[in-house]
Queue: 4 jobs
Job 1
Amino acid sequence: MERIGIVDLGSNTARLVVFSFEPGKWFVLDTEIRERVRLGQGLGEDGELTPDAIDRAVAALDLFSDFAAASGLENLEVIATSAVRDASNRSEMLARIGSLGFAVDSVSGEEEAQLGVVAVANGFDLKDAWVIDLGGGSAQVSRMSQRRYRRGGAFPLGALRLTDTYLASDPPKPKEVKALEKRVRAELAETLDQLAGDPVPVVAMGGTIRNLARAAQRLRGYPLDVMHGYFLRREDLETVTEELLGRTARKRGALSGISGDRADIILAGALVFRVILRAADRDGVWISGNGVREGAFYTHFLPEPHTLADVRRFSVENLAHQYMQPAEHLERVRRLARRLFEELESLHELGRREAGLLDAAATLHDIGMTVGYHLHHKHGSYLVLAARLNGYDHREQALLSLLVRFHRKGQPKLGPLADVACEGDEQLLATLTFCLRMAEMLERSRAGRVEDVRAKIGVEEVRLDVVAAEEPVVELWEASKQAPLFERAFGRRLEVRWVEAAR
C-alpha cells in the first residue's frame, strides 16, 4: 500500500487530499483539508500577488505540512494553478513554498486542462465530452475524444478574477453583469461556436459549479445527497442565478447549498456558466466531483494514458474492496444471478446495461455486513447511496442502492428515490431484485451446493430447476419463498425443484 497527498493550490482555495492505494488495483480517499486562501485576490494590473495573499497561501501549506508530518505522510505534491502561473512575482511565491520543503509543480493552462480530462475520463462512462473546469482565477475548457485530451486551454475567467474586475456593487448593477457577460462571450467566442456545433455532453468541475448544483438540488427538494454524476439542468441554473442576482453577498451565503466562503464570488461563476449554456444551446451540464487533484492522482495510480479500462466495473470493485466480504460467496451469487437473468430473458427482455446493474448489485449486496449482520441490507444500501460511483448516473446509483436494500427481504419499491427514476423502473427493480434475491437464497448455506439453474417457461407457470449433486434442502426452502416476488415481476406462478447434477 502507498500513500500520497496532493495539494491543489488555486486562486481561491488550497485543498489537500490524501489517498491510500495499490497501483492499478484499488484506492481510497483517506482525508481532505480545505482552506480559503484567496491567492488571486487583489492582483494589480502588473499581476503581482499581494503579500497578504502569499502569507495566506503559505499558512495553509504550513498547515498541510504539519498534518503530513503528524500522520507520517511522506509523499506530498503541490500543484500550483492559475494565480501562481500568471503572477509577475511567481518566483517569490515559489521560493516561499520551497522553504517549507514542498516540491511544487506550477502547471500550465494546458496541463491543468489535461488533468481535468483525466479526471473526467476516469469519472464518467463517456468517450467524448467537453470539460469545463472553472476555478477562482481561470476556466479550462477542453475537448475529450475517445477518453483522451485532444485540445483546450485556459481563459482568464475565474470566479474570483471576474468578481474583482466587474462586480463592484453589492448586489451588482445590471451594467456590471452585462459587462462581465460580454467579456465571457469575447474570451470564449471561438470555443462557444465549437460547443454549439459539437453536441457531445458537457462535464463541469470545480467548487463553483458544485455549489450551484447543490443550491439547485435544495431548491428542487432533490432526494439524493450526492453531487458527482448529477445533471444540472439549464433551467435550474437559470433559477439559481436569478436568485443570486437579487441578493447581497451576505444573503447569497444564506441560500442553502452555497458555501459562506464562496458567497461573494459565486455569482460571477454562475454568469459564466449561464453564458456558456445559452450560447451553446445546451440543456445542462454533468457535475464532476473529481477535479485536478484526482486527475493528478490517476497519473500516479495508472500508467499512461492514465485511464481505467472499465470505469463502471472498477468503481464497483473498488467500493467492494473497502468492505471486503468472502470472495467465493460473492462470485457464486454473481454467477447465479447472471444465470437467472439469462434463463428468464424471454420474459424480461432486458439488455446488457441492466445485466450490468444486476452484476454490480451482486458484487455489493453484502457490504453492509461490515457494520453488522442485522440490518446489513439497509447498511449496505446507505453505503452504496453515499459512495462516489464513477461511471453511474444518479438513477443507476439509486437502483443499485435499492437492489442492495431488497436483496434479502421486503417488497421492492422506489419509495423516496422515485424522483430520480424513469418510467418502468418499478418493474425493472422487481425483476432484478428477484434475480439477485433468488441467487442469494440459492447460496443460503454459502457452501456452493447449487451448480446451475434452468428455467422451463410456460404460459402461466415457470419451473426453476435447481441443479445440485445432492438435494440442497435449505436453498430450496428459501427459494420457494420467492414465488410471490416472481409473480409480481413476471406475472406467472413459480415452481422450484431440485434436479440432480449429471455425474
Job 2
Amino acid sequence: MISVTHLLLSLIVGISILLMLIRPRNIPEVYWIGGGVLLLLLLRLVSWHLAARAVLKALDVCLFLIGMMLLSELAREHGVFDWLSSVAVRRANGSCSRLFALVYAAGTFVTIFLSNDATAVVLTPAILTAVRKAKVDPLPYLFVCAFIANAASFLLPISNPANLVVFHSQMPPLGRWLQSFGVPCLVSIATTFIVMRWLFRNELSERIEFEVEATPLRSDGKLVLTGLAVTVIVLLAVSSLGMDLGLPTCLVALVITAAVSIKARCNPWGLAREISWSTLALVTGLFVMVEAMESIGAMHRTQDWLVRAQELGLTAGTFATGFAVGIANNLINNLPLGLIAGSTLQAAHAPGLLADAVLIGVDLGPNLSITGSLATILWLIALRKEKVDVSFWSFLKVGAVAMPVALLASLGGAILMQICFRS
C-alpha cells in the first residue's frame, strides 16, 4: 500500500514537471522545478543529505554544460556561427534545396561536436538571420536546426547532455560507443533528412533571388575554431579512456576562453553572464526530484517494465523499449526521463542492446513534439526572442512523420550491428 508521504512526494514531483512543460503565465521552467524541490525539503519529504547527494551526481553534467555554453558563446561572439550561416547561403547558388542540405550539414556538424543545445540556441538565430537576408521562407531551415539537434545527438557522447545523464558513471568508452551508436545515428541523420526534404518539397522548389553578403571570419574567430578542434580531440581522448566528460570540458573551455580573450583584448566576464545559470539550476533540481523518486522505490516499476521488454525477445524488446522511451520523452521531457532511465539501467543491469535502445529513444524521441527535449524548448525560446512563433501543432505535423520513421530505422540499425558483432 502506498503511504501518504510517498503519494505526496510523487504528486509534487509530477505537478512540478507538468508545470515545467506547460509554463503557466510564461514563468520559466526553473521556477517550477526549484519550487517543487524547495517544497519537498520544507515538508521534509526529502532530506538535505539526499538533496546534496543528487547535486553531486548532477555536477558532471553541469560542468559539461558550462564548458559547452562557454564555447558556444565564444563562437557566437566572434562570428563563427554568422560566418558558417553566410557560407551556407552563398554556397547554395540560389537553390533552396541546396541551402536546405547545407544548413542540415552545418547543424549536423555543430550537434556532433558542440552538442545539440549549441545547435538549438546559437546556430538557429544565425541561420534565421541569414535566410531572412536571402528573403526565403525561414521555417524549413529552422525546423532543420530543431530536428538535427536530436537526430545527430548520439553519434558521440559529447553530442547531447542527455547521454551523460543516461549512462552517468557507466559511460561506455568511445570505441564501444561508436560500435553501438555509430551506424544507428548515421541512419537517423539520413532518414530524418529524407523525410524532411520530402515534407518541405514545395517550399524548397523555389529560388533564392537575393544575394547575401559574405561574412568574413576574423582572426579571433579562427582562433575559436582552432580551440573547438582542440576541444573535440581532448574530449574524444577522454571518452576513449571511459572517463567523465564534465570536468575536462569545463577546463578546456576555460583555457580557450582565456586565450581568445587575451588575444582579442576583451573582458571574459561578459561570457560568464551569457551562461544559462537557470538551465544548470533546472538540471540540478531534476536530479534531486529523480533521486527523491528513487528513494521511495519508484524505479522498481520501470525495472519491471524493462524485464518484460527483455522477455519479448531481441527484436521485439528493442523496438518496444525504444518506442516506449521515445514517446514518453514527449510526456515528461527527455532530461527527467533520461535520469529515470539511467537509474533504471544501473539498477537492472540491462543487457547492451536494451540499454542502447533506451538511449536512442531518449535522444531521438523528442523529435515528435516541442515538449520532448530541453534542446527543443531552448530552440523555441530562441525563436520567440526573434519574434518567430512555431506552434505545438505545426511542430507535431512534421514530428509525427519524421520521428517514428527515423526511430524505426535507427533501432533497426542497432539490432543489425548487434547481430553483426555477435557473429
Job 3
Amino acid sequence: MDRKIAWEEYSVKQEKELETLSAEYIDFISKCKTERECIDHIVEAAEAAGFKELEELVKNKTTVKTGDRIYSVWMNKSIALFEIGSRPLEEGMNILGAHIDSPRLDVKQNPLYEDGGFAYLDTHYYGGIKKYQWVTLPLALHGVIVKKDGTTVLVNVGENEEDPVFFVSDLLIHLASEQLEKKGNKVIEGEALDIIIGNKPLVLKKTAKVNEEAKKKKDKVKSNILEILKKLYDVSEEDFVSAELEVVPAGKAREAGFDRSMILGYGHDDRVCAFPSYKAVTASGGFEKTACCILVDKEEIGSVGATGMKSRFFEYMVAQIVELMGDYSELKLKRILANSCMLSSDVSAGFDPIYAAQFEKKNACYLGKGVVFNKYTGSRGKSGSNDANAEYIAYLRNIMDESKVYYQTAELGKVDAGGGGTIAYIMALYGMNVIDSGIPVLNMHAPWECVSKADIYEAFRCYKAFLKGSGI
C-alpha cells in the first residue's frame, strides 16, 4: 500500500502555510537547544495565547471551568498545557505528548582541567549517540550555573557570530592507522569527548612580586579560564558543582536541498514533534474533550527522574485541576486518565536509500509522505513497546481521512535490526488508548538531523484534528 507524497497535492495556500510554519519552527529549534530554553519559549507562547499558571490558580483557589486555558511547569524542564473542554472531564482528555530533551554532551560536576597547554571541560554523553560524530564540530555551551545563594546564571555561548565556539579534537589521519582498525563504538571513547575551551595562559603584570607568584602558579591556562568566568559570570570553580551545562552543536537550523524542502538542525528528536504539539493546543480552541499537551524531559535516558514521564507529576497536575473544578476523588482521577486518548509524538526512522538494508520498505516511513503512526516500537519481539489496539487505530484513521491529513504507518527498521522506545508505554499504564505518532527523521541522534517541511505541516494538521476528536 503506497502513500501519496504530500507535496504533490498541496494548494498554493497550503504551501504558504507550510512555509510560514517551517520558518517559525526553524527559529524555535535554533533558539531552544535545551529543555529549559524550550520551557521558557513555550511559556511565553502559552501566556500570549491566554493560558494561566496552574500554581497561581491553586494559590488563589480559582474555580476552573469550560474554556479555561492552563499551564503548569515542572522543575523548569517539563510542562503541560490544558484547555478545559465542554464535556465532563471524567470522559477523558485528548493528549499530545512529546519530549524536549535530545542527545548531547553534559558537563561533569568537576569538569575543568588543564593538560598539554589546553583547558578542557570533562563531559559525560547523554542519550544514545555515535561518539565519533561529535568530534571536530563547532560546539556551543548552554545551561545554568546556580550559586550557593540561589542566584541562577544563564550560560549561552557559541550561537552568535561574535561568540567563540568549542570543540572535541580528533587524531590526524596521518597517525590514525591503529584508530581506524577499531570498531565504530570504540573509535572515540566516551572519556575522550572532553571539549577544548582555551589555550592561552594567564599573564600577570610584570612586577617582581607578581613574577614570583607566577612562577609558583600551575595550570595557567585553566587559571586564565577561571579569570574569564569570574569576569563574565561572577562564578568560581566550585560553582560547577551546582551547574547544568549542555554541550550542543553550534549554529542555526538551515533549510536543506536546492528545493528547500527539508530542514537540517540539532534536536529534531523530539522537538520536531513538541513544536507542532504545543502549537496545536495554543492555536486551536473550543474543544469538546479537554485538550492537553505534555512535553517532558529525560526520555532519551529512559524517562527517569523527577522530570521524566515515569514521575507522577502529570497525575499531580490533573488532580489539582480536578480539585479546582470542585469535585475531586481518586476514582474520578483514575477514570479521567483511563478514558483519555493519546498521541505519543516521537520521531520515526525515515527510510534512507543509502542504508536500505536496515529497513523493510513496505513498513518504513518516508520523508514527505506525512505524519507517521507506529503501532508499536520496542526492539525485536516488540520488547518494551506499547502496542496500540486495532479499534483505536481505526478511530484515528477516520479522523485523518475526514481532515485530509497525509499519514503513513511504519516500524523502526527491520525486526532484528534494533529498535527504540518512547513515553507511550508509560502513559498506557493508566489504561488509556495510546499510539506513537511523529515525523520521519534522517540522521536520528546525530548532531545534525534532517526532516521534511511537509511532514511538520502534516503533523500540525494531524494534532489539531486529533484534539477535536470525540474519543473512543
Job 4
Amino acid sequence: MARMLGRVAPWLPSAKSDIRSAASSAALRILGDGDTDALWDLAAADPVANIFMLSHLEAARTAAPTSAGGRVIGVFDGGTLTGACWAGVNVVPVGLDAAAGPEVGRYLARSRSRVSSIFGPAEAVLSIWSELRDVSPKPFDVRPEQPLMQMAGRSTVTPAPGLRPARVDELDVLLPACTAMFEEEVGYSPVSNGDRHYRQRVKGLIERRQSLVDFDAAGRVVFKAELGTVSAQAVQIQGVWMNPEYRGQGLSRSYMSAVVAAALDVAPLVSLYVNSYNAPARASYEAVGFEQVGTFATILF
C-alpha cells in the first residue's frame, strides 16, 4: 500500500480556490451567468468525458462562480467559447485541446490557486500541467494514462443479487470500507485529520442513494461502489472496492454488472476510468461490457 500522506481533501470547506481575474490572455476569462448556454453546449458534446461539468451545471444552473470559490475559465476564439476549465480545489478541463491547455496552465500559474487534483481528458490535463508544473508544489502522483470506459446497456453477466443502496444506519459499517478504498486508490488517508468531513461525504452519497453495498452473513462489507458523479446523460462509477477476504473468487464481475444495472436506472450511459496498470480491474470491466472511449489523466497533490 502507498505511504499515507496528509493532504487537503477536495470535500473540505477550507479547500477553496483563490483564482483572481488579473493578468490573463484576452482569449481567457472567468465565465458568468450569460455564458451558461454556451458552456452547456460545450460540455454536452461529450457527456461521458465532461460529466463533472454537466453535473455541476445541473445543480448550479449557471456558469457563474460559486459561493464556495469554484469558477470556470473560458477559452474563446472570436467570441465563441471553444474550451473551458473548472477551477476550484479540483481543476477539470472541458473541451480543451493540447494548444489551449498550456494557456490555461499559465493562467492558473498566475492565479497561484491552491489545487488538490487535476483530472480529465489526458491531452488537456497534461498540457495544462506542462505550464503549471514549474510553479506548482510537487505532486505525489501523476497518472498519465487512465482508460475512460463506457457502456450503454445492461451486462450479459448475471448481476450479484445482494447489491443494494446503503442505508444511513449502516454508515458506521460502510465508512471503514470507504476509507480503505480511498487509501488503496489515492495513497493517503481521508481521515488523517479526523473523519467528520469524509463521514459527511459518505453520508451524502447514501442519502442520495448513490452508495451501493453488499454485506456477508457476519455483517461485513463484501463489496461497495458509488454512482459518484451523476448527470441526466451519464453516471460515472467511483469508489469500487472488494473486501480483501473475498478477492480472487471471481465475484467482481457479477457485482459490477449489478452496479451497471443500478446506474442505468439513473442515466442512459455508464462510465468509469481506471489506472492503466490495474490489469485485473480492466479485465473485469471489459468482461462486464465496458469499452474504452477515451483516456483520462490525473495529477494528485
